[in-house]
Fold this sequence. Notes:
By secondary structure, the protein is mostly helical. The protein is built from seven helices and two strands; from the N terminus they run H-H-H-H-E-E-H-H-H.
Amino acid sequence: MSETRANAHRLLQLLASLRERTIALKMRRLAQLGLSESHVRTLHILASHGPITMGELARLLFLKPPSVTVIVRRLTERGLVERRPHPNDQRAALLFPTDQGRQVLETIYQDMLRETEHFLAKLSPTEQEALLEFLEQLVKATQITTPSMPPAIKGTERSNHDKTQRA
């Protein structure tokens, strides 16, 4: 096995382990809120893309329309998503996150931010910077430019201030 292949295998194992740990924390919080990962993905897409139709949402979620209908119905019943008539198509409705839906997203994000801060605190500032530099390079190396890909979670882009601080 080549060194690159062995490193790729090791990286996959490390990413899987990290994912399992972070997902477990996130899933506990979602269970407390009575939500699923699909609910949160739906809210995130609606908050990121603005008002969209069920068909557009299904495409962005990579799900079939009947599955999206069930998700949206549950979110609507909970007051997290609102349907409004489409101004140009009487057959369609536009989906919006409600203020409560946006607040749920913010709560989840703040929880994840606290957990990530806790993990990073175990590293020195130099180690944190090296980790972030490596991850930025990895993201750039694996970036796929597909219009149907949901945008990254807010806060993943470095501000210009951060970039100038580093220089």
